[in-house]
Fold these 2 entries.
Entry 1:
Amino acid sequence: MALSFAAKLNTTSMDDVIHELSANIAERLELKSKSLARVLNSVLLFISGAIKYNLSVSSVEADLSAFGLDTEHIAAFTKSWNEHYVTLNRSAVKSSLKFNEVIDMEWKFGVSASSDSCKKLGTTFLQLKLVLDKGDKTEDVVMELSLKQFYEFLHEMEKAKLAMQSATE
């Protein structure tokens, strides 16, 4: 159950997920919601760390065993982990892609006309201004790249695009 709720983290905050989970479970099992919320917070923290560090099933089992869980609960968790692993990873990728999303880009191409060094005279450059969505505000990032740096940057962006497409498919 915690794993299916953890998959919602890209659309809702962790606090909302914990509140919803603790209210549902506490009502059914007649437990204190605050105590249960602390436990759920720990479980979701473990899940998000396991996703972040791309832990294998055997690593998850070893960690749960180190936490003192019995084999029956470890087996149930790893079964659920296997069922929801792809969804959790896609959710994590989508939520991380929403942060620092490029919402606008301006560029200028130029050739240096004067310089302290004659070697740099006549070299081409590209000024790039990216407007990033930081969630609650936007941020302008300005950079000046040589032609070689620009092509390296473009190559990295194309690799990132392919990685994102394969992660979301």
Entry 2:
Amino acid sequence: HVGHGGFLNKQWGRGFGQADCFGKSPGGVMQREMEFEFAASRVTFFQGIMSWILAITVELGITGWQVPVPTGAAAETNEGRALLAKRQLYYCASSSVAFLFLWMLAFFNWHLPFYQNYFQLVHRLLSLTWERYIAHGGAPRFTALAALAPLVASIWFGIQAMMLA
């Protein structure tokens, strides 16, 4: 029987049988009863899509920037005009995808229940992560703190790679 708790009573102090599973919407129940999981799934899914779209934007922009720009008499030839057109098309594609990125962010912010905007959702997820996994019960957990070292290294190396590009 699900309502007897067992594992769930040890984790959250109650089982599904004691949870309030009624609400105005399924999302409302998820947000109220399992806020960390709700926020994590929304942030990671949306962040994955947005990172992919932003990567396409950057790749198109860098590729356009790498197209050689003919100068002087070379710019007036058919090959020179073709190179300039190629560069402009890469910039056109990059800015179009950037528009899509911002449009999706605006749409997501407008249709985001329970939070004012995407950044408040991310802030709440980080707060829940800190409360639940790092400083659970007041004393920091060593393994969770140790996991921050590779995260900081990953961010550092990512910044260094972007500076070299």
